[in-house]
Amino acid sequence: MAMMPMRPSTILLACAIAGLVASAALAQAVNYSSVEAIAGKPLQLTYHASAHKSNCTPAPLATFDVLQPPKLGLLIVRKAMLTTNKVPDCPGLKIPAEVVFYRGRNGSAGTDHVVYKVTSSGGEVETYDVTITLKPAPPPAPTPKPPSSQKGNSL
Asked: Contacts for 135-141 with beta carbons within 8 Å, 24 or more apart?
């Protein structure tokens, strides 16, 4: 079977589509970090919030996908309210936010790893790849003994 030659417009369209696919793949940012955590104590990893700069209103919250869950603890996303002056012409802007925490299980220690993806309402994708050095919680401080009520010999 003979191959039909491709028209120049077909080749141009194929190249344009390939370029769009390649640029979309490159648009995803990957953030690598290493942190230390203490077992049983929550550690804030990231927070995510967005606003419409044109009218100083909140943008829809981001979505989260856990690509690799932690083995020695939990990844927790909590809702919060963020007040910021970082948006031009929107002083004291209050917007809903989502805060990502890691909490190692009590009694656990070692190296943990988590990877999660955050997609903003505008479609921007950021991946967070976090290596966690999990340290055991320090032992509780001994409780002081009350003074003895026994009478001792006096000199």
From this structure: 135/36, 135/37, 135/38, 135/39, 135/109, 136/38, 136/39, 136/107, 136/108, 136/109, 137/38, 137/39, 137/40, 137/41, 137/106, 138/38
Q: Which residues contact 63 (CB under 8 A, 6 or more apart)?
A: 118, 119
CATH number of 28-135: 2.60.40
Q: Is the pLDDT of residue 103 over 50?
A: yes
pLDDT value for 142: 83
Q: Can you give the pLDDT at residue 139?
A: 84
Highest mean pLDDT: which range of 4-13, 46-55, 108-117: 108-117
Beta-strand relationship, 57-58 and 51-52? antiparallel
**32 pLDDT more than 90:** yes
Residue with tokens 């491709």: 6
Kindly list the domain boundaries of the chain, sorted by start residue: 28-135
Q: Which residues pair with 80 in a beta bridge?
A: 97
CA torsion 86-90-92-96 (nearest 10°) is -80
